[in-house]
Amino acid sequence: MAKHRLEQPNRGSTVAKKAVIAGSITLGSLAAAAGPALAAPVHTPLGTFEIPALPGEQKAPEAAPAPKPVAKSPAATVEIPNVGQFTIPGIGQNQIPQQFRPHGGAPLGQPQLTAGQKAVKAAESKIGSPYSYGSAGPNAFDCSGLVYWSYKQAGKNIPRDSYGQLGGGRAVSYSEAKPGDVMIFNGGGHAGIYVGNGQFVHSSTYGTPVKRDAVKEWQLTGIRRY
C-alpha cells in the first residue's frame, strides 16, 4: 500500500499548477481585450509567470517635460570710426552713446552731416525755384526765406529775416567759412548759404531763380555759423 501511494501522481501539485495556468490564461485574455498592457513577473513554487496588468491598472508613460526657453543675454553693437564694429555682451543697445552706435545714421566710415551741410543740400535741391518776396518755400523763396527753409530741413530753427540771421549764430571770418555758413550781404539786406569753393546759393530777385553765385561778386557784410 505504501509503495502504491508513492507511485500516485501528486494531485495537489497538478491542481495548483492547472489553477495558476488557468488564471494566467484568464488574465491574459482580459488584458488582450483591453489592449496592450504592462506585464510584471510573479514568482510561485511552480515557476515564474508574466502577469499582464489588469484593465484600469496600466499607466501611460509620462511625457518628458518641455524644455524651458533659455533667456538670451543682452548684447550691444558698438562702432569705432575707422576701426570696425564690436559686440559687447551684458548691455542693451540703448546704453551705447549715439556716436558709437552702428553707422550712427550714416554708412560705415562716413561721418554724419552737420546741420550746415544738410542745409546746403536742401538749398541746392531748390536751384531753379522762383523768387517770391515773403515766401519761405517749399516752391518759391525770397533770400532769407531760402536760408530759413534750408535750415528747417536740417532740423534747426534760425531767424526768419536776413537782419535776424545776421544777429544770430556765431561770427566767422571768410577764411574760416565752411559749407552751410549763412552769408549776409548789402549791410544785412540780403542772405544766402555758403556751399564752398567761393560760391553761395541764394534767391536774389524777381525774374531770377534760385542759383549759385560767386561770393566776390557781392558786398559781403558778415558770416554766421549756426
From TrEMBL:
Pfam families: NLPC_P60 (PF00877). Coiled coil: none annotated. GO terms for molecular function: cysteine-type peptidase activity. Keywords: Hydrolase, Protease, Signal, Thiol protease. SUPFAM superfamilies: Cysteine proteinases. Residues 113-226 form the NlpC/P60 domain. GO terms for biological process: proteolysis. Residues 1-39 form the signal peptide. The keyword Hydrolase applies. InterPro entries: NLP_P60_dom, Papain-like_cys_pep_sf, PG_Endopeptidase_C40. Belongs to the peptidase C40 family. This is Hydrolase Nlp/P60. It comes from Gordonia alkanivorans CGMCC 6845.
